[in-house]
Fold this sequence. Notes:
Helix content of chain B: 25-40%
Largest interface: A-B, 50 and 42 residues
Strand content of chain B: 15-25%
CATH class of chain A: Alpha Beta
Mean pLDDT of chain A: 91
Largest sheet of chain A: 5 strands, mixed
Structural class of chain A: alpha/beta
Number of helices of chain A: 6
CATH superfamily of chain A: HybD-like
Oligomer: heterodimer
Number of helices of chain B: 19
Distance between the termini of chain B: 70 Å
Mean pLDDT of chain B: 90
Radius of gyration of chain A: 15 Å
Largest sheet of chain B: 5 strands, antiparallel
CATH topology of chain B: Cytochrome-c3 Hydrogenase, chain B
Order of helices and strands of chain A: EHEHEEHHEHH
Low-confidence stretches of chain B: 62-67, 603-628
Number of strands of chain A: 5
CATH class of chain B: Mainly Alpha
Amino acid sequence: MRTLIAGVGYSNLSDLSVGPIVAEQLRREAWPESVEVDDLSYGPIAVVHRFAEAAPPYERLVLVGAADRLAKPARVCCYRWAGVLPPAEEVQARVAEAVTGIIDLDNLLVVAGQFRALPEEVFVVEVQPVVTEFGMELGPDVAALLPHVCRLCRRLALEGDYAATANCGQG
Amino acid sequence: MCFRNLPIEIDERGQMHLREDAEVAYGLRDRPQSSGPRPLSDEQVRDLVARNGYIKDVDFDPVTRVAGALAFHAVADLKERRMITTNSMATLFRGYEVIMLGRDPRDAIFITSRACGVCGGVHSVTSCMALEMALGLAPPPLGIVVRNLMLAMEFNYDHPLHLFLLAGPDYSRILVEQTNPEVWDKAQTCPAPGRAWHGYETIGQIMEDLNPLAGKLYVEALHMTRVAREAYVVLGGKYPHPETIVPGGVSTTVSLQTFNEFYVRLQKFFDYAKKMVAIWDDLTGFFYAANPLYQQVGTRPKNLMDVGIWDDADAYDASYAHCDQWGERRWSTPGAIMDGQLVTTKLTALNAGLEEFVERSYYDPWTGRRFVTDPLGNPLSPYHPWNKETKPKPVGQNWKEKYSWSCAPRWDRQASEAGAYARLWITAAAQKIPANPFIEATGTSLRFKVPKSALPEVELEWKIPAVWNAFERNRARAYAVAFNSLVAMNDWLKGLDLLRQGKTEVSTPFEIPKKGTRIGAGFWGAGRGWLTHHLVLDDGLVANYQIVTPSTINASPRDPWDHLGPYEEAVMNTPILETFDDPAKFKGIDILRTIRSFDPCMPCTTHIFAGDQVISREVNTCACGAEE
């Protein structure tokens, strides 16, 4: 099963950069030939093109990044994306953001979902950021979770482990 | 005379001199000439708002959930249907100028590339050019050709994306039917003159296919941006943020095969350009006929500036000493248009007239004037990028004082706009484009001989417009796709010729000197116009790095003389033509069309406040499907 693990987020924004940092960490690990690790921290329209060009297409995607849900600090949440899109006007607003350079987990899902570019199985691993100032390192709370997040990504990528998604917040 | 506000004279040898002592010459007391609008004072606005229930604050606020970078505030008189005051606010500090200090200059290529999420390759090239000038490093001809090809296709990625995914929906059935039903009524029966090229019988059918997400033109543009990206990647390896742009050329491998793969993509834009031009010609003509007041939407003085782009492979030597010569050999001529007149095509004059002001921005002013002149002895302002220091100082927003993270770049102390249209205008007026089979500058127009593809060969002519407004910006951007594609065609032929001659080198080796001071400037362009990087190296490390982007220019706040920035001017001049009985239903479409016509590379539109009425597109941020 061709699988992609991808980080999403801006660089150098402390915990908000957890996606690219996890991707960088996972790149250094050994993976089966069917699993690739990449950083999708660029415009979602370009990501749509990226998936459209993939041959053979990806069958599973594990996306990892920070998302501020006003949740418990440093909460880790993983789920299978249900593919539900917001109303068309909102999707267009997100496309406009995507086009103007916004890099964001939600936008990527909505825009790529709208244009049916995503693989059949999409898992998302989200981290509630704590430190969001400029900084090249993660804050201590999220940094401590890094091994857990990497293990979670590996498990989802290799096993498509639905059970893992039931363990939200175990960080 | 090139300058009318800065007291700079140019002698017969082309050398610039200050007529006055520098302190007086660059003082901020004398008010420069300006033909721009004058907003009311804050006190006058407050008084009007208190007395008149039809006067509303209208905020186009940033996308707060992620990283909104631009917000627009306006006070509108909905009864008189006019704007009273406007403020454009860059709401984020990006700080690349600070990040670059003390670094190896080679880092700038990769770091500054991230300055824009839309322009994925232009900053890399501009950064390399600044370093090339500082080091005296000329790329080989094929390296220059490859850069030109890549950047032409980057613009062919940008313009359709803007015209159909961002600006297009403002002219779609869904929007027009809501905001101006009387215009939609006319559109349904109005014949489309360009039917032979785009296939639509009526303007209404065009509007139908401009509908966001589902409209055929929208979806087609999404596809064509992919074609452009593929063409870029064939040569550059990666987009956005290519890693093959290096000082002295490119590090990519090019061959006959890569050139052929590039051409397969390029030729698709010949037909697409024919179609885009016909669509935007038809839309523009229709709106003007439907209501002549549309010609005032987004109007502002005809002040435009551009440093040119796409070098002549036989002329570019990267030196400042020869920049006027190689600049004027570019496919897109550098220049400044002031009140509709071309006043210079010299890069040295464009450079000498460039200043950045921070009086209304969240920065402390700086003192000192390290570089009194440029390397040729031409005077430089203390506000010139080579002298500028970036000293961020966040304070509370205050319309009378500081309200933006954008500084106010000015040329000859005039608010000038940047854009793809500036490239067309200056190139058309200057008539300096090198002889070629595809593009001709007539002094009042640019003629494009677009080759046959599936559609027959055609000659398109973009004419310098009599009126300058939001519609003309979009129309020119459509013609710019023809311009980009034909520049690429010229360079593609040049590249084949170089390959045939065995001139396959694409880069020149270099070393960073560890001692001494060197300065350089990258004069280049983004999809939306003027882009410069000014670099100072001390002992091999970056001592100063200043970036002027087109959106900094266009979104700039007021300057020290209270002259408005381009967005602010254009919105100030915009009549409110939207149809509404109830002010609470006001959507602000004319204002949105105006701001979007500049192709801002910062997201700007999420919710609108009209007095106590909020029109909002609020977004649920949670995409969780199985959250605890």
